[in-house]
């Protein structure tokens, strides 16, 4: 019995992976998308970060393509207005992010993948990779056990460089990593009726007694008011755990839920919060940092903040340097007016690799540059670029680094990408 064979295998269906798979499928490649969860979207759907950005810079759109197409369809389906990219807040970058309905986003992503002819394998994980006869022999783990397929091109969109690790390509790993976040909706109270000053003082006392940790609400004791005002959200910090593998992921998930239990027990004792309820925003911790590939090219913080236009730039990126550090706090550096960073093809190709690409938050970059590059809109753009390169490589029989750059640009432009 012959083994099932694909032109392109994309591993991970987050913001990067779903765009990579759609682009490869639309380009005519026989594409399979492997995802450990039962839903596309990654942090958008699984971690409550349902406000992707940033698609614009300095009053104009700089990231388009498949990711933007999906966000636009989600807004239109909900009857929500499209953003006016001429309105731009350079100081408060989060105001440029676009809130979307995560359920609609996932359903529309399913349809987009189906229309592109992508074979989607939910509840499936990568078990092993072996280069063989100029392609890849891949062992997948489904709910009923292990099975093997073949793929010409691999695109690692796991967020943790798991495929890169299995293929034994080089990667970097920070120690410690940026903290993760367990997001919830906090409901059942009227913020205007709360004595926030008294709650803050009680929280500081609870931290001193060891009942809660200051990072349970983000940046310290004073942020309990922000947690309540924002109805929970993306502010908790789970520190000191690298969630690159299943063991680390297990620890971070347990630690995230333990933090929410501590906060819940404390808040329910406070006046006005007797009916507090936590509603999950997704169900998984949102992870900011684990591994980064070592690529043919590496985006440095100087490259990023200077807006260097790489000769083979495959997309723009836009976000401030945004390094969360458990000891130092937030290292946030806004970009100079008019600066729009770029990402080169080489940052998507692991060094010394063969028929292999990577996209999303694991692209080759130093730590400070990656603190900005990891954001969802950029992940969508790098995912689409990787999908285009993989499809062209599979069709031509060339390695991803050998595909003519003009052909890559042409394919991306045909599918709505905005290129430097």
Number of domains: 2
Shape: globular
The mean pLDDT is 96
Share in helix: 25-40%
* Element-by-element helix/strand order: EHEHEEHHEEEEHEEHHEHEEHEEEEEHHH
Describe this structure as you would to a colleague.
The protein is α/β, with parallel strands linked by helices. The protein has 2 domains: 5-173 and 289-414, FAD/NAD(P)-binding domain (3-Layer(bba) Sandwich); 184-280, no CATH class. The chain is 32% helix and 20% strand. It is built from 12 helices and 18 strands. The strands form 6 sheets. Strands 1, 2, 5, 6, 7, 8 and 18 form a 7-stranded mixed sheet that branches. Strands 11-10-12 form a 3-stranded antiparallel sheet. A two-stranded antiparallel sheet has the order 3-4. Helix 1 (15-26) runs parallel beside helix 4 and helix 3 (65-78) packs across helix 11 (376-396). The protein is globular and about 65 Å long. It starts with a strand and ends in a 6-residue tail after the last helix. The mean pLDDT is 96.
List keywords for this structure.
420 residues, seven-stranded mixed β-sheet, 2 domains, FAD/NAD(P)-binding domain, alpha/beta, globular
Summarize the structure.
The protein is of the alpha/beta class and 420 residues long. Helix content is 32%, strand content 20%.
